[in-house]
Amino acid sequence: MESGESLNSLAFVQEMFRKYYVEDFNIGVYVPLIDKREFGFASFDNQMVRHKNFRSTGELKVFMQIFVPSDVYYSCAYYENPMAEMERKGWLGADLIFDIDADHIPTLCERIHDRWTCGGCGFSGKGITPEKCPLCGSENLDAETWPCEDCLG
Fold it and tell me: Residue 78's domain spans which residues?
C-alpha cells in the first residue's frame, strides 16, 4: 500500500482481492467440471464480463489474478461449448441448486438486530421494515437485515 493510501480505498480492496486470488484461491475445490461451465465476472467498476470458459482451474486462476473481479459467477448447467451463443451451447445437464436467502426467513430475534431507516426524514426503527415511514409516510426505506447465530440455530 502506498504512503497515504487509505485502508478504505478501492485500490486497497482490489489489492486484497488480488492477493487472495494469488495466494489462497482454489476454485477446483468448489467447481467440478470447470471446462463445461460458463463463467461471469463483475469488476469493481460495475462492468460485467460474461460467457467466459476455462479449460482448467489454473487458467481460471490466472484470469482472476489479472482481472481481479469483485464477484464471480458460474453456470449450474454443463455445456458442450460454454462460450457459444445460448442456442449453440449444447446443454448437457445441470446441478440442482437451492438458493435460500436466510435474511428473508422470519425469526424471533429480528426485532432485536434488524434495523431500517427512512431516506426521507431519517427516522429509524428495529424489526420488520414497514411499507411506509410511520413519521413522514415515505416509501424510501433502507433496511439492514442479517441472520445471527440464534436465527440460524
Answer: 10-94
Torsion sign over Cα 125, 129, 134, 140: positive
Predicted TM-score (pTM) above 0.70: no
Pair 86, 108 in one domain = no
Q: Counting beta carbons within 10 angstroms of the beta carbon of residue 96, is it exposed (0 to 12), middle (13 to 18) or buried (19 or more)?
A: exposed
86 and 22 assigned to the same domain: yes
What total number of domains does the chain contain? 2
CA atoms within 13 A on the CB side of 51: 7
For residues 65 and 70, what is the distance between their CA atoms, to the nearest angstrom? 11
Question: For 60-106, what is each residue's pLDDT tens digit?
Answer: 999 999 999 999 999 999 999 999 999 999 999 999 998 877 666 77
Provide the 3-class DSSP secondary structure of residue 100. Answer: coil
